[in-house]
Structures are given as C-alpha cells and as structure tokens.
DNA sequence: AGCACGCCGACT
DNA sequence: GTCGGCGTGCTC
C-alpha cells in the first residue's frame, strides 16, 4: 500500500535529542508502509539526526507547510516488539525523560548511531569445516586465515555489514571464496528447536523445590520476591524455573547488577543449558558482538540472555520469564541521563509481556519487602544454606578503648592468625580505597581538601599522591600544612583505607602468607580481577583485603573468616537509606564466609556494639531489622510509604542554583505534591560546581508521576533554568 | 544537547 | 574598526 501518496498523516518522530517533545515530518520521499519503531534520518535544525517513528498523526501540531520530510528510512520493520514500545512509552511518562533519549539508550550503540542497517540481514558464522580449517591453519592464504579468525573471535553470527570494516577491500570475494569452500555459512534467521533439558544434576532442598513450584505454577504475569540468605541457592532456583520454559521454546532474561559476576553466572547457565543457548552482555564485548546477541535474542535464537541494567531492553521473540538477581543493588538504577530503575521497569515489562518476574536477594530492598507485605509480590523465602554449608558465626568487636594497629584490633589479628594456621583464607572488608581518606596537620588540625570539591583528598601512599575520589584531581603530597599561619611539616594520615590495611598486615611478624588487595587501584586493567579471583580459587592460605568489589556474589570456598574493619560508616549517615545500605552491604560480605563445608566466622569491628543495627548483624537477621527500618520510614513518611523525586541543580555560583530551585518550588501548585528545600546536596561542591536540590514528596508514585509533567513544562520555561544544569531523578536511590 | 544570532570589551 | 565572550532562542 502506498500510504505517502494518499497523505494519510504526518510522522510523529522521537528525535535522538534531549528534548521533551516529538516532531512531525512528512512521510516522503519513500512510499512506505510506515510503522512505529522504525528508525528514520531526519533534517533537524542545521544538521541531521536519527529518530524513531512513534506514530502517524492526522493533524500536525503546526502548519504542515513548515514541515520537513524524512530523509531516509533505515529499517524495513520495527526494531522492537510492541511490548517494548509500551515499556519505553511508560518510562518516558514515569521518569519524565525525553523519549528520543530513552529510545537511544534502549538500542544497541550501532543501531543508535545508525552505523548498521538493521537485521534481518545475512549473518555469517564459521561452519565446522571452517573451524577445522582455522585450526589446521591456512599458511598460503593469510587473508582467508584472518577472515576466519575474525568470525571465530566474534563467536556467533556476525552481520554482513560488519565485514567491510573487518576484512577490508575485497571482502566480497573473500566472503564468496570462503562460502564456496564451505568454511563459512550464512545463518538463516530460523527459530531454534525446542530444547530437551536434562533433569537437574543437583538435588534441591525442600525450600528451593517449593520456590520453584510456586514460580512454575504462575500463569502469565506474576511478581515474586525470592528472599534467600547468602548461599541458599537462588541460582539453582533460577535454573530450574527456566528449564521447562526452554523446552517450550521460550526465553529468559536475567539481569545482574554487576558485570564482574556475569562470568560465574554464565558458566552455570551454560553448563545447564548448553553454551550456544546462553549469552551474556558484559562490558568486554565489542559493539558488533552486542548487536549480534541482541539480534539473536530478537529472533528467538537465544534461550537465556544475561546482562546488566541496560539488557532489560533486549527484545525477546518469545519471552518466558524475567529474573532480577540482587534486586536490592543500587547499580540497577542508572545514575545519569535516563535515570531508570531496571528492577522497577522489569516489573512493568513482565506485566506487558504477561510473564512472571522474579526478584532475588539475600537482603531485599525495603521497597520490595513492602510490596511483599502488601501482597503485591509473592514472598518466597529460602531460610537455609544449600548443601552442607551452615551460616557463619558472627561476633562484634567492641573497638572502644582498644589499641588499634592501623585500624585492626588485636582480637581480629588473633583470629586472622588462627584462620591462616588452619590453612584457610581470610577476607578483610574496608570500603575505602587508598591509604587514608584524609591527611591532617598534627599542629593545627588543617585537612587537605580538594580545591574543587567539598571533600578531603585521599592519600595514596604507593604512588605518593593525594587524589580526589570525586573529581579525579591528583596532586603531590604537600610537604607542610596548608594553613599559612601554621606551615607545620607534621602531616598525618587520618583513618584507614585498603592500602593501609594491606601494609599493616605486611608489617606483622610471622605472617608469611600472600596478601591480595582487591580494589579499583589494585585491579585496574581488564582481566586482572578475574586472574586474582582465579588464584584465590586455588585455595592456598592467603588474606584478601578489598572493597565492595570483593563483596558481590563471588564464591570463595576457602574463606572462613570475614573481618569488617569499620562497620560504623553509614550508621549515622545523612542519607535516609544509609542504614539499609550498611545492613545489606555487611550481610553480603559476611555471606562470603564459610560457603563450603568448613564453618565460617564473621568479625565486625564497631564503636557501637549496642546499636540495634549491630545486634541485627550479629544475629544475621536481615528481616527483623528491615522491619524496624520500614517502621521508621512509615513514621517519617519516606519511601516506600511515599513517593520521592529530586530536582538537582548545579552551577558555578551558589545563588544560581538557589534562585532556580526557589523559582521551581514556586511553580508547584499540585495539592498533593510537597516541595522541600532548596537543600544543599550531600556534597555541596563537586568538580568546581555548587550543587543543591529540591525534594518532592507525594503520597503515591502515580500521583507523583502525573503531577511532575505539567510542573516540568513550567520549569523548562524559567529564565533561571538556563543558568544551571538541572536534572530530575524520580525514585532516587543515591541522593547525589 | 548543538548551533545559530546578538550585543558589549580588548586587540591586529 | 574587528574577534570573540556567552546569554537567549530554536530545532518539525
């Protein structure tokens, strides 16, 4: 049907630009059956941009004579299924972010930038003969050798449009030669045959079996909170829930917070379902590889897709289930640009796809616990560790009036020695990298602060530098106090970081085991973390000193002692989520202890052993303290008992942010919305910019989402808005 | 976000 | 007399 000649309407396009509006274009020059979800190249101001056709409107919002025409249509069909159109539409409304940018972030980079025509196009892969030939080597034909090696490295089907760049001139004849010899084959976009999955090789315990049965019984959309202590075997539950779906040719999408734990998870899925059925979208992939996985998922050729936050937008031909592992983790919330929560959007997507969604965690977010209590989520509990592993013993070390050695108490050092003497491994957790979080003048108390941030600089002893962890500033260590009236040369480190703990341990007599530091400084390059983890798996006695990095999801069977060096940070945090975060973090680290046969021990150093949170940690009781925190939130009217959004502003001068936020507060007229502030941001100055924010409270998330729209329109017109950089964060998790 | 236009200071 | 500062406005 030639729809352009009969002028059925005007194309509504979401241009890839940070603008909260759509634009109309004439549907020339191609006669086309226009469908929402196709990419188009359009004239935009002086330049050209890509955008997405959102729909066809009979009447444009301005004089049709002023409209420009679409320059090019890039795709023969919509890129995403209708469910994802609806999801992105919802996200635009809920987060009040420009639709064009939302689409841009949802698409693989190569499609976002228009560097790749959209599949279905021919994809090439190695045949068995090609693999054999590559093994044997092609000494007389180096180009063919290189060509085969490239496809092998791409692992999977490589779109033909990637070949010119990879193979260079004459790629066509190279392709035809290799194809003629049967070394490479064009992979037909066919659906895979339903898989026959062997029964589970591991016996599940009754808790796990119950959880699997509950999830499998779900018909269509059903949200579950899988609340299982560390080591309770949540992954095994995921595997068994997915297995029968694959036999029905359906697909599973698994989101994890951090790339560092994808390899381990990928291995387990690949071992269960076959490597060719499972793909992980991790940071080590090239853009071409990502696009290949995306296309294969879209065509239904992959059974399981594992990925981080952005993988939520992977199209699935036949979705069967969505799984969000470590659902409490804040990295599921994007912290810049389009600030979405992959966990919250996953629930929306599951509803749109009409499939079950499982949120798994040992330390569920208060939001999810609340949803479970309200009956919105089905609460599945795994209270015991799987296999023979038992939960670790937890002890609190009262630091008050104790002599400390670089932050370590004698009790902890003694336990460390005993652990190593038994031939076991120990893990010390301290969530600060560097040697010390500040340096201080011993004479007058002056602290070396960052010039551009309201924060002290961190001492890095190894490289002998002072660094700001907020803006990246890097200076030599001053020789003397910066106070002009003092100038004393006596500058002393204040507090502890991983580097200091490492050096204190090295200085201990008769402690002849390797000490391995794991933080962003120690394992800077790609693969270094994996290499370190590999070595740890070997099992020889050693001490691991590390930050967050060490805590997430890793399995260290030989670690029997976990020491938390300073649990008090966050106890009296200004952030209302401080306690929830501290509780989750310490319990996640504690969960690394004794995951195999040998029992584990956790020692927590604190100056506040009587604090209820410390008592909860000692009892390893997340649930009870989470209830306490929930009650507090209810009394204070904070999320999840209300909805929160944050208007954040940054400018060169403090008055500019305040003027803007005051103006913004004045524009607010909604009866159910309450503005609080302007308040200085937790870090008042960062990278030379002054920062302040306005908090917006509403009784319900729906009210908030709905009221924010007109308010933002008013804000965008404010003259003061132009003098600041402002962002809106709906459901903020980090308060910036 | 880009990219124009536009009106005021220190320079060849 | 111009080069260029960034305030203001627009992008179908």
Automatic annotation (TrEMBL):
Residue ranges of every copy of the Helicase C-terminal domain listed in the record: 477-636
All residue ranges annotated as the Helicase ATP-binding domain in the record: 215-382
EC number of the protein: 5.6.2.4
Classification via InterPro entries: DEAD/DEAH_box_helicase_dom, Helicase_ATP-bd, Helicase_C-like, P-loop_NTPase, PriA, PriA_3primeBD, PriA_3primeBD_sf, PriA_C
Function text: Initiates the restart of stalled replication forks, which reloads the replicative helicase on sites other than the origin of replication. Recognizes and binds to abandoned replication forks and remodels them to uncover a helicase loading site. Promotes assembly of the primosome at these replication forks.
Domain of life of the native organism: Bacteria
Alphabetized GO MF terms: hydrolase activity
Cofactor(s) the protein needs: Zn(2+)
Enzyme class, UniProt record, top EC level: isomerase
Name of the coding gene: priA
Binding site residues for Zn(2+) 2: 450, 453, 468, 471
Family that this chain belongs to: Belongs to the helicase family. PriA subfamily.
This protein's UniProt keywords: ATP-binding, DNA replication, DNA-binding, Helicase, Hydrolase, Isomerase, Metal-binding, Nucleotide-binding, Primosome, Zinc
Cross-referenced Pfam families: DEAD, Helicase_C, PriA_3primeBD, PriA_C, Zn_ribbon_PriA
Assembly and binders: Component of the replication restart primosome.
Reaction it catalyzes: Couples ATP hydrolysis with the unwinding of duplex DNA by translocating in the 3'-5' direction; ATP + H2O = ADP + phosphate + H(+)
Keyword DNA-binding in annotation: yes
CC cofactor note: Binds 2 zinc ions per subunit.
Residue numbers binding Zn(2+) 1: 441, 444, 481
Source organism (scientific name): Thermithiobacillus plumbiphilus
Protein name from the UniProt record: Replication restart protein PriA
């Amino acid at each position: 049907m030639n729809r352009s000649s009969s002028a059925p309407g005007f194309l509504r396009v979401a241009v890839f630009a940070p603008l909260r509006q759509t634009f109309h274009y004439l549907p020339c020059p191609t006669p086309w059956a226009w469908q929402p979800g196709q990419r188009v190249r359009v004239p935009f101001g002086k330049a050209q941009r890509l955008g997405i056709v959102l729909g066809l409107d009979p009447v444009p919002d301005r004089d049709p004579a002023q409209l420009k025409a679409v320059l090019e249509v890039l795709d023969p069909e919509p890129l995403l299924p209708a469910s994802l159109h609806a999801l992105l539409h919802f996200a635009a409304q809920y987060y009040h972010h420009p639709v064009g940018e939302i689409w841009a972030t949802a698409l693989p980079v190569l499609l976002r930038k228009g560097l790749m025509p959209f599949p279905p196009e021919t994809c090439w892969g190695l045949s068995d003969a090609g693999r054999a030939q590559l093994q044997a080597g092609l000494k007389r034909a180096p180009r063919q050798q290189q060509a085969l090696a490239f496809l092998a490295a791409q692992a999977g089907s490589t779109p033909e449009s990637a070949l010119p760049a990879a193979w260079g001139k004459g790629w066509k004849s190279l392709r035809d030669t290799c194809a003629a010899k049967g070394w490479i084959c064009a992979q037909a976009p066919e659906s895979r045959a339903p898989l026959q999955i062997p029964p589970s090789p591991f016996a599940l315990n009754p808790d796990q079996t119950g959880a699997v049965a509950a999830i499998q019984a779900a018909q269509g959309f059903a949200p579950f909170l899988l609340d299982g202590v560390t080591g309770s075997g949540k992954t095994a539950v995921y595997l068994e829930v997915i297995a029968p779906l694959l036999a029905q040719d359906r697909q599973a999408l698994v989101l994890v917070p951090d790339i560092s734990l994808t390899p381990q998870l990928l291995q387990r899925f690949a071992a269960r379902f076959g490597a060719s059925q499972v793909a992980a979208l991790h940071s080590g992939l090239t853009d071409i590889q990502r696009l290949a996985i995306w296309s294969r998922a879209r065509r239904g050729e992959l059974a399981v897709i594992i990925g981080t936050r952005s993988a939520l937008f992977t199209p699935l031909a036949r979705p069967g289930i969505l799984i969000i592992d470590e659902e409490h983790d804040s990295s599921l919330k994007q912290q810049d640009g389009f600030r979405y929560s992959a966990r919250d959007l996953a629930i929306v997507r599951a509803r749109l796809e009409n499939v079950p969604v499982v949120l798994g965690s040992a330390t569920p977010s208060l939001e999810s616990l609340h949803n479970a209590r309200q009956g919105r989520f089905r609460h599945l509990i795994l209270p015991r560790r799987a296999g023979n592993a038992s939960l670790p013993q937890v002890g609190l070390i009262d630091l008050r009036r104790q002599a400390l050695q670089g932050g370590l108490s004698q009790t902890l050092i003694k336990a460390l020695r005993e652990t190593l003497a038994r031939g076991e491994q120990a893990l010390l957790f301290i969530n600060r990298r560097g040697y010390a979080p500040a340096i201080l003048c011993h004479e007058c108390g002056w602290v070396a602060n960052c010039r551009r941030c309201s924060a002290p600089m961190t001492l890095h002893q190894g490289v002998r530098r002072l660094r700001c962890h907020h803006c990246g500033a890097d200076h030599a260590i001053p020789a003397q106090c910066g106070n002009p009236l003092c100038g004393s040369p006596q500058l002393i480190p204040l507090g502890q970081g991983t580097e200091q703990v490492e050096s204190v341990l090295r200085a201990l007599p008769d402690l002849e085991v390797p000490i391995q530091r794991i933080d962003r400084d120690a394992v800077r390059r790609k693969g270094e973390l994996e290499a370190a983890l590999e070595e740890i798996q070997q099992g020889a006695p050693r001490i691991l000193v590390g930050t967050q990095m060490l805590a997430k999801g890793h399995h260290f069977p030989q670690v029997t002692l976990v020491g938390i060096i300073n649990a008090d940070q966050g106890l009296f945090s200004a952030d209302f989520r401080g306690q929830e975060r501290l509780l989750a973090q310490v319990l996640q680290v504690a969960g690394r202890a004794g995951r195999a046969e040998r029992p584990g021990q956790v020692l927590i150093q604190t100056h506040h052993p009587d604090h209820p949170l410390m008592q909860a940690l000692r009892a390893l009781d997340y649930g009870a303290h989470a209830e306490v925190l929930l009650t507090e939130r209810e009394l204070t009217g904070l999320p999840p008992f209300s909805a929160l959004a944050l208007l954040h502003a940054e400018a060169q001068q403090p008055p500019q942010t305040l003027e803007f936020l005051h103006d913004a507060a004045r524009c607010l007229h909604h009866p159910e919305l309450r503005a609080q502030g302007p308040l200085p941001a937790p870090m008042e100055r960062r990278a030379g910019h002054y920062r302040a924010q306005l908090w917006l409270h509403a009784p319900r998330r729906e009210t908030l989402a709905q009221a924010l729209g007109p308010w933002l329109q008013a804000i965008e017109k404010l003259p003061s808005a132009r003098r600041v950089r402002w962002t809106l964060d709906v459901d903020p998790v980090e308060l910036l």
